[in-house]
TrEMBL record:
It comes from Soonwooa buanensis. This is Triosephosphate isomerase. GO terms for molecular function: triose-phosphate isomerase activity. It catalyses: D-glyceraldehyde 3-phosphate = dihydroxyacetone phosphate. Pathway: Carbohydrate biosynthesis; gluconeogenesis; Carbohydrate degradation; glycolysis; D-glyceraldehyde 3-phosphate from glycerone phosphate: step 1/1. Belongs to the triosephosphate isomerase family. Homodimer. SUPFAM superfamilies: Triosephosphate isomerase (TIM). It is an enzyme of class 5 (isomerase). The lineage of its organism: Bacteria, Pseudomonadati, Bacteroidota, Flavobacteriia, Flavobacteriales.
Length: 251
């Protein structure tokens, strides 16, 4: 059975004190509630050590928002898989659309980052999705196919099983515009069928595919009820415990 996951991407938000306060609220929430999904957070890199400390006895996995494709060396500003591994971080987002948009990341970068994470036993949450222009041109199935193939299809079956995929249509991220549950479901099913064609249905059925793009407390349940949607990658609504906890309760 694949995992249901709600993951919060904090992006570049919150100072130290506010980040600590939100982590403590989430810790309290997790102590007092049984959840039907795994809960992950991806705070800014500066707060990863604090997150690991706060959640040391709680079932909240801590992810980086990005990681270098390189092992070590003269890469100013970068953080390596070895660094995050050495402080007990569980994995990293890979090629979020904002990394693609503002930092020129491509699926070739994603491929190397995914591999670097898997090589040290960490979980990649690989993000893909089409732009508004691509959707309007009816290219969304093809775009997501190309992205998935370039980023993931050099992996072995054992490797790809450890990847979490987040389908995030760019036009729905931070815009208040959400894909309908049916629109999301058809792309999720498409991604799963691509994986099944390459690696077999058993492998495809093990991979959690999350939806991201303006998931809110009032639409989470319906989105998560789709057969190929195994949870959400949540941006804005992960920044308030009231919203994030209601989304978790969508399962
Ligand atoms: C995201 O950052 O991955 C995201 C989906 O953001 P939002 O929920 O704010 O659209």
């Amino acid at each position: 059975m694949r995992k249901n996951i709600v993951a919060g991407n904090w992006k570049m938000n919150k100072n130290f004190a506010d980040a600590e306060a939100l982590m403590i609220q989430l810790l309290e929430y997790k102590k007092n509630n049984t959840t039907n999904c795994e809960v992950y957070i991806a705070p800014p890199a500066l707060y990863l050590t604090m997150a690991k400390d706060i959640f040391k006895n709680a079932e909240v996995e801590v992810f980086a928002q990005d990681v270098s494709e390189y092992q070590s060396g003269a890469y100013t500003g970068e953080i390596s898989v070895e660094m995050i591994n050495s402080i007990g971080i569980d994995g990293s987002l890979v090629s979020h659309s904002e990394r693609r948009q503002y930092h020129g990341e491509t699926d070739s970068h994603a491929n190397r980052k995914v591999k670097a994470l898997l090589d040290v036993g960490l979980t990649p949450i690989y993000c893909n999705g089409e732009t508004l222009e691509q959707r309007k041109a009816g290219q969304h199935f093809e775009v997501v196919k190309n992205q998935t193939e370039v980023a993931l299809f050099t992996l072995s079956a054992d490797e790809i099983k450890k990847v979490v995929i987040a389908y995030e249509p760019v036009w729905a991220i931070g815009t208040g515009e959400t894909a309908t549950p049916e629109q999301a479901q058809e792309i999720h099913a498409h991604i799963r069928s691509l994986i099944a064609a390459k690696y077999g249905q058993e492998v495809a059925d093990e991979i959690s595919i999350l939806y991201g793009g303006s998931v809110k407390p009032d639409n989470a349940k319906e989105i998560f009820s789709q057969p190929d949607i195994d949870g959400g990658l949540i941006g804005g609504a992960a920044l308030k415990i009231e919203d994030f906890s209601k989304i978790i309760e969508g399962f």
